[in-house]
């Protein structure tokens, strides 16, 4: 018995079978970490490598399905791997490998437009949007954001984006953030299809073309001291933040950028 691959397979098997057993018995389902601790009671040298543990954690978050190919979290993981591989080669990812977050949400928006009461609809009713300061064209919403925090604080990854960008702590004495980081959106397609490692993002309104942000697949350091890899950002000085009015009438209020 090896110390990495074999324990990984055993933990994955136990996760899949323990999940159904715990649900029927109203017990707390096991986690990869708890099963690893159990396995070490009989094989103390069991030590799945960090990559395997990350995949077990992903499998656990997915609910341990019998097949993973069509699961959104698995597809997001595959997308991240392709992007990371391209960056490691010093290349921008191919346009076919880029997942545009707003296109993935089209089904949710269709449900909202049809008047269906869903959790997604409730979230969107109270969401924020970000618009070009010059022409008011909407550039994205808070659902697209990738959280990052000043270097003096913790930096979790955004579950909404599948952790698609890694936030790396680099130091202290943080300055206020001058950027909002977000995942790729369809209005960026023309620029990202050019195959450059870094570049500028212009407002998609053809009559405006204001410079609203930039991107760097190899990563970018925010003014707060955090590195975000890969990085797609909007400059706070070039956009306005608006919030949807209460009542769900679709109107927005300008609230500024902090």
Question: What would your notes on this structure say?
Answer:
The protein is of the alpha+beta class. Helix content is 31%, strand content 17%. The chain contains eight helices and eleven strands. The longest helix is centred in the N-terminal third of the chain and has 20 residues.
* Average residue-wise pLDDT: 79
What's the total count of β strands? 11
Helix content: 25-40%
Helix count? 8
Q: What is the ordering of alpha helices and beta strands?
A: HHHHHHHEEEEHEEEEEEE
Largest sheet: 4 strands, antiparallel
Strand content: 15-25%
Look at the helices and sheets and give the structural class: alpha+beta
Catalogue the unreliable spans: 110-126, 153-163
Strand adjacency order, main sheet: 2-1-10-11
Task: Indicate the multimeric state.
Answer: single chain
Radius of gyration: 21 Å
Specify the overall morphology. elongated
Tell me the span between the first and last alpha carbons.
55 Å
